[in-house]
């Protein structure tokens, strides 16, 4: 009887590791699918070319209707691309949380993990739904008003500079601390239906705030630019997993400040 307890504890630990490994495998598969879809959609959209605009920049077709496409269809295409992109970019930052949560001893932990993930990504999808009409209206304004179009490169440089400044701010530090401190402890308190969803939505809200600067950079550089997305995904994962995430955030902020300066210099040369 004295030997049974260590064996039982070892079995429990083994089951937790197996569950965590299974969730890591599922997350890896979902990441590969989302990344493949993102690359395929971006490549398909890029093959159609952008629209040269006054001011020396090219407007992404993500904000415009394609030939024969309705506005609801264009919005649906953008949301599909945005959702795949967000899963590919944000899943690595969430996967360790999900794997640790799935290793909890509580029964139905997997169901709670699914609710957390759904709540988390629902916030990001809602952000895409809100951003599309704004981007489409700004694109239409650039098409109709030449002066606004010529000012776009300068505005893009300013936005990237502000994104870099945000990375160095105390607001960013607070959001990042919340994201790094979020830990799946006992899922028993999330047993009532909907509480895990709200918990995931709260995590998503903190993540949206933490990634505001990088999101702005992706939108300005090009929502279909794979290089910008890869940089943002690497920065987000580094901020979450590095031993000193705050230092990573500051380094990323410095890179954004430099990029914003380059964009402004180019805009000045084109003026």
UniProtKB/TrEMBL annotation:
Ordered alphabetically, the record's keywords are: Membrane, Transmembrane, Transmembrane helix
| Presence of the UniProt keyword Membrane in the record | yes
User: Does the record bear Nuclease in its keywords?
Assistant: no
Q: One Pfam family from the UniProt entry?
A: PpoB2
Q: Can you tell me where the transmembrane regions are?
A: 21-46, 79-99, 111-132, 138-166, 203-236, 248-265
Q: What is this protein called?
A: DUF2182 domain-containing protein
Q: Which organism is it from?
A: Paraburkholderia dinghuensis
Lineage, broadest ranks: Bacteria, Pseudomonadati, Pseudomonadota, Betaproteobacteria, Burkholderiales
């Amino acid at each position: 009887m004295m030997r049974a307890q260590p064996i039982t504890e070892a079995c429990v630990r083994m089951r937790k590791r197996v569950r965590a490994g299974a969730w890591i495998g599922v997350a890896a598969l979902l990441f590969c699918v989302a990344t493949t879809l993102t690359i395929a959609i971006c490549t398909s959209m890029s093959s159609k070319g952008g629209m040269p605009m006054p001011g020396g920049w090219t407007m992404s077709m993500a904000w415009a209707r394609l030939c024969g496409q309705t506005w609801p269809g264009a919005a649906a295409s953008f949301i599909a691309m945005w959702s795949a992109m967000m899963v590919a970019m944000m899943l690595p930052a969430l996967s360790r949380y999900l794997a640790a949560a799935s290793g909890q001893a509580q029964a139905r932990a997997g169901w709670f993990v699914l609710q957390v993930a759904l709540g988390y990504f629902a916030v990001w999808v809602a952000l895409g739904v809100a951003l599309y009409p704004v981007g489409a209206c700004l694109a239409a304004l650039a098409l109709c008003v030449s002066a606004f179009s010529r000012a776009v490169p300068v505005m893009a440089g300013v936005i990237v500079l502000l994104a870099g400044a945000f990375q160095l701010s105390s607001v960013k530090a607070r959001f990042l601390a919340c994201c790094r401190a979020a830990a799946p402890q006992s899922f028993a308190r999330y047993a009532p239906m909907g509480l895990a969803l709200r918990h995931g939505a709260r995590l998503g809200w903190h993540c949206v705030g933490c990634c505001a600067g990088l999101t702005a950079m992706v939108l300005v550089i090009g929502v279909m630019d794979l290089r910008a997305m890869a940089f943002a995904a690497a920065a987000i994962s580094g901020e979450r997993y590095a031993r000193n995430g705050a230092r990573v955030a500051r380094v990323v902020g410095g890179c954004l400040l430099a990029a914003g300066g380059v964009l402004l210099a180019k805009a000045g040369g084109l003026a």
